[in-house]
Amino acid sequence: MPAARPRASFEPIPPDFDVRTFVETADNFRYADRISYEMIKNNGIEQFEKLVLLHVIIGGKPLVIDGFEEVLDPWTFTPSWLRDNHGEKVENARNLTSKENIPLTVKHYLKHMSKLTEQFFVDPERYRDKTRQRIYLKDIDCPPVWQDKLKEHIPQGVFYLNESTGEIGGPGALDEPGGRKGRGIGRSGDLMSSLPPEMRAENLMCYIGHEGTYTPAHREMCASLGQNIMVNASELVGEGSKPERPGSSIWFMTETKDRHLVSEYWLSILGHDIEVENHFAQLIAWKKAPFKTYVVEQRAGDFILIPPLAPHQVWNRGTRTMKIAWNRTTVETLELALNEALPNSRVVCRDEQYKNKAIVYYTLLKYSNLIKSARAQVEMGGEQAEAIQRSVKIRQVQRDFKRLFDLYKTILLSEMFSPESREHPEFESYDSNVTCSYCRCNIFNRFLTCKSCKNLFSSEIEEPYDVCMDCYCMGRSCSCQSGYTWVEQWKWKDLLHRYEEWRAQIIDIDGQMTEKTPLPLQEERRYLGKKTLAQVCQEQLRLRPYVDVKNPKPEEEEEEEEEDVQVDEYGMARKPAKKKSKQWLTQHKSCHFCLHRHPKWKMAFCSNCDLSYCYGTLFRAHDMMPLTVMENHNWKCPHCRRVCNTGACRRDPRQHPYEPKGTLLGHDTKKVADPRSVECLVDFSVSNLNWLREDESAMQRRRDEAERAKLADPSLDDRYMDDDHDPNRDGIAYSPVNENGFEDSTIAGGDGYVAPSAVMHDPYGGGGADSLYPDPDENGEIPRLGKRNRADDDDEEEGGSRRKKKKKQKKSKDDALVPLQPKSTSGKQYQKEVQRKLLEDAKREDRFILVAARMKGKSKIVKLPMSSDLLEAIEQRPVPERPVPEHQRESSEEPVGELGSILQSDVLPAQKPANDIHRKEKGPKTFRYRVTEDETYSTRKRNLEIGGPVTKPGRPAKGSRRYEEVTIESDSELDDYDMGDFNESGAARRRARESNWLARKNAGEEDLPTELPSDFRDGQVNPNREKNLERQRERRKTMPPKSPKPKPTIRPSGRGPGRPRKSIGNMSGQDGVHEEDDQASALLLAKSAAATLEAREKAEAEKARATAAEREAQENLRAKMGIAEFFEGSGSDNESLNGFIDNLAADDEPLAHERDASMSESPVAQRTGPPQPTNSIFAKPGMVGKKIKIVSARSKRNGESASKTTTTTRIKAPVSTFKGVNAPASKRVELSSDESDSEDQIPAKAPEPAVKTPGRPRGRPSMIPTRGSSSGKRGRGRPRKTM
């Protein structure tokens, strides 16, 4: 299992981080060395290539070249150009927070970069929020136009896919078909160019990021050289005069020679593996690191060269950073890749995309042809022959050819079979697409394939399981474990022929046989001293058992020999002793370390003793890979070598226990490997923390190794060749730098450091120690190596040559914001155009003086003398209304700093945001309720007689039950239908809300509408809707205010002011009106009944109203006809007929004060009997002059049909009489109003009629349950339904 030790967490860098203060206050920080683009032009490309070799490749230190912003095309490398030309291209942006990819277009990402940036500046502590979106548009293809523009200015030796560093018309150049001179012979700047175009790995990528995006600590793939240039960064004012945050990138870089120390620091202290590339180290972790860290704040125009295998990480700042990066492969990086990088990547199963072994083969083919061409030109003689013999570039090609041949020899030796074997591998032509199914490395020639697993996933699709020889020796394979077939992609005899041909060329270059001259391949194998990789695979194929995955056999139970049953002293049978069978014991062996018995084919046997070790113990406790044991002819165990670290051997004074050199956290590779894969020898997911001591011995050991490596002189390295070929010189002259950073001419190779100033000469004749530690200002110019600083004086101490450092004068804030003046013509034109657009936008927004002052570096304060009267007049002048600028409207669409997703994909369909975990889930919106049939309105034959047949009491039959579904919607949901989702252009997109019933009703009719109008909720269908609503509001104002709720007290014997009791008998004999218990329940019941009767009894109600009020209806009709004739004659269109009638009806109603006055003047009738309830229907406000329809309803409890009688009476005052408590009359009341259709009939529940029913005592009437009735009640808080 992976290590269960604490791991460092992710800690973002604050937006206001000061790089200069951080670097100067830490002892292990220093700025990376810088040179300018002008120095390359003045010293030449050859000196620059020499600097890169000495400083970056051999020295292993980063290098920064600045000044490219002055020569790059300012019109091309801009976000507007990218938006216009590649804005519709879909790319996968990486969400660093959720570790997911978001498909989106380039223009969509560029549009939201400001919002993604400002979320970190709203609150000083907001940057620590783990839910912040960090969207990084990384690893996207570079536009071809950008590639061509960069190729014009980037030195050819360090550019992408450089095929030759030779000069045009140089030594060895051949005439091209067009008559022009070709390039001279020279080595390739990027050996990836040696591959055929279809085999190359496209690694020219663009990286666009905003504040808070980052790249975790990592190494460049396959130990290649990294190049990164920032082509554009945001400034204070962006396109369209939008305010932006200045963009830059902070790099934390290390040296190549510290790579083992950095890796151990990551594993043992931080708890992460640098090979996995999933951790961004905190600032405090870099500050406490035991190695030197180089810090670079990259701005627009800075070109960074990254050493091979040097860990580094990047943090982006500001609104926008746009960078272009690529990798180069050289002979030096190929050696590091095959010997170190690929074995490390194989353990964690990291892809190999660069095809390193294929690069070795194809580069040898290319260099062989170049050497043959040079040889042919030398034999022809002449001036060209002498130039070729003196050419340094041709000698570099010859030297690289020898080193590549050594790598080729190593590849062939690893693939040689045993001399006694007669293998006949299958042939498959090489296409560079065969990869290992486990570690995913690229396979150059020979590999193993399993034909039993090819149809494991599907019987129709064949998916072979191919495994490289390295993984098979590590115990990695499919479940079959054995029975593999050998496959090769090159004819072995062709590879041997190439070997002999290139070996002959090397002998011809040297002129004779030397100690370093390669031998024939068979002789080289004889001197190898160990088994080849292919030979080990052959032995393991014979040892490992074959497992048929199609017909798996159950594991045979361990054979046991049971002894006779024995009985103890109490007569109880003892548990029989179990013993392993002899056959099982012969096939298994006990490990000397873990004491477990393993199959013998999983054990490593010592050739000097009878001890054996399991491969897992050797890997974790002794740092030995399985291949290291298998390839040794006479392997000796740790006990024989006196380094065994078992518990018993530690007590032996002759033993010196071995301590692991490094930390292994363990990697669960099953997540990335083929699902058919197994690890049968070593479980690489288990860590070795149990074998480590709690000290820093491993860290100190790595530190000592790094210090010894730094003492080596780069100029004496065999990878470096003195280009000047001066016999009087043993190496180049350089000026080392001591630990304090001062240049000391008395030190000769103190720490093996080659300063760039030793190779790149100062065109101004200056350069000092201050240039090695530049102090980058926020927006000012960064001091460069070899460039004279006019602000510093060279004060020399008496009697010494060491220069004294003088503190620089701190620039003012306004001076630091002044941008650099471009030197190229295109740059000046671009800057003038940008300034012109900014001033035009500023003039429209009344910011002309401020923007113009900022451009010229002037103060922001403008003093205008004016009189007090004029100032007062200006202050009182009304502010003219101006349209909001477009960029301000866009920025105000979405609030900045809100939690949630700021940027979403514009390619995938929009997804509804997930419900908040704290938000309660909404209940179901559709309900079923039982419906009780009303026989009065049924279509069946009614029982006209009262004493008709009596139905059977009890619950109705199950089959007779009917249910209806009701969909409940809230007001917010209804409003959501009206509110459209605003798209990017601001136009509202209406949600699909169609009237299906209207479409079905009017189907086939061309003239009739099939859906409601879009503005049907805006009152356009009913023009008088606003007037009706205003009239209802006025009516509510006239209603008496609610009395405050009384405090809880002890109720006296009389009627208290609290909630009234139910009225069970206070009713008139003539009216038969049943009073409800309180005003609230009566109002709620009336509203619910009105809503139900509106849908089901509308026709009956209109008929009853017409019958009861025929005279009033005729009078109203005559009045309406007269009014209509009046309007037709006048031709007035100011108000519709219906609106006028509604207003007329409103005028007929008395006003509030008139109604109150009339009520106060009317005498109060003196009466006796029970007190009149205050919640009577007649006591309600606005009941004066109302028409009340009293409908008699008879009980249907015994099944008889109820006859309905309607009477109409005019009530002038809320006066009612009362009879006995147990009055027998029971009526059903309907209120009729001329004002609103929704309040035409308001039924009130009444007691049962005074029909004597057997079994029920006289007194309180029976209560009819309302559960399951068809009258739907409005939900809580739902407004009244209006027509």
From TrEMBL:
Keyword Cytoplasm found: yes
SMART domains: JmjC
GO CC aspect terms: cytoplasm; nucleus
One BP annotation, GO: regulation of DNA-templated transcription
Signal peptide start-end: none
UniProt entry tagged with the keyword Cytoplasm: yes
InterPro entries on file: CDCA7/CDA7L (IPR040221), JmjC_dom (IPR003347), Znf-4CXXC_R1 (IPR018866)
Subcellular location: Cytoplasm; Nucleus
Listed PANTHER family: OS05G0300700 PROTEIN (PTHR31169), ZINC-FINGER DOMAIN OF MONOAMINE-OXIDASE A REPRESSOR R1 PROTEIN (PTHR31169:SF8)
Protein's UniProt name: JmjC domain-containing protein
